[in-house]
Amino acid sequence: MNLYVCIKQVPDTETKIKVNGDGSGIDTAGIKWIMSSYDEFGVEEALRLKEKTPGATVTVVSAGPDRVIETLRTALAMGADNAIHVELPETADSAMTAKAIAGTLKKEAKVDLVFFGKEALDVGASQVPQLVAAHLGIPAVTVVCGIEYSGSTLKCKREIEGGSFEMVEVAAPVVIAGSKGLNEPRYATLPNIMKAKKKEVKAVKLADIGVSTSDQRIKMKNLQLPPPKQAGKKIDGDAGAQAHQLAQALHNEAKVI
């Protein structure tokens, strides 16, 4: 069984984001990069399935600039067998990314399952898994928090509105976009981290898969940070005085009553 996991490198959630000089994107200088946390569920799920399936292999794929190789090595240290770096520009949108990943997978000998996270932590568009599935001509099941495997058939538990769940039965090959609750991702051990540094990462160029910058549909024109929050106002006094001052502030300052 050939298992593939598509992962994205994103800024650490504690990173203070700055807009670059022309407003076309973020300033990447000094950013700590990590694997998007939802993608960790995809890696873990593929590894668990591999452990139950003799002869199965796990290949991780990441599209982006050269720095994403570091995140690919994180997945290799977790236990993945192979890694593919799709050389994509920093500015690539969901459409271009999906076409590049799908083009890469089409060149593989056989693809049984493709795992993603349900969305990336930085953009949160939740588009790439479905777009990749469309390019490959296979089904996609998103927001998956549980899977039962039976041969080539999967029963996927999905989160839906109102705190409810639904079960979707689907046959491989299929794209699965995992969500929180699917599993508990493992930590990489030190020996595996050292081994991962020596593993080969296959490089795929856009020209090799028929992708170019013309496939990008969206370009950032004027990126802005949200305005800083105003300081709060503390009201002193007893309950009656506080209520009176609050009503006055809502009427005269906030103008909401």
Strand content: 25-35%
Biggest β-sheet description: 9 strands, mixed
CATH superfamily of the largest domain: HUPs
How does the helix and strand content classify structurally?
alpha/beta
Shape: globular
Give me the side-by-side strand order of the main sheet. Answer: 9-8-7-10-6-1-4-5-11
Structure, explained:
By secondary structure, the chain is α/β, with parallel strands linked by helices. It has 2 domains: 214 residues, HUPs (Rossmann fold); 27 residues, no CATH class. The protein has 6 helices and 11 strands. A hairpin with a 3-residue loop joins strand 8 and strand 9. Helix 2 packs across helix 5 and helix 3 packs across helix 4. The longest helix has 16 residues. It is globular.
Which short descriptors sum up this protein?
single chain, 257 residues, alpha/beta, Rossmann fold, 2 domains, nine-stranded mixed beta sheet, two-stranded antiparallel ribbon, 6 helices, 25% strand, globular
What's the structural blueprint in terms of helices and strands?
Blueprint: E1 2-6, E2 9-11, E3 33-35, H1 37-52, E4 57-64, H2 68-78, E5 82-87, H3 94-106, E6 113-117, H4 128-136, E7 140-150, E8 153-160, E9 164-171, E10 174-178, H5 190-196, E11 202-204, H6 239-252
Parallel strand pairs: 1-4, 1-6, 4-5, 5-11, 6-10, 7-10
Antiparallel strand pairs: 2-3, 7-8, 8-9
Helix pairs in contact: 2-5, 3-4
Concise description?
The chain is an alpha/beta fold and 257 residues long.
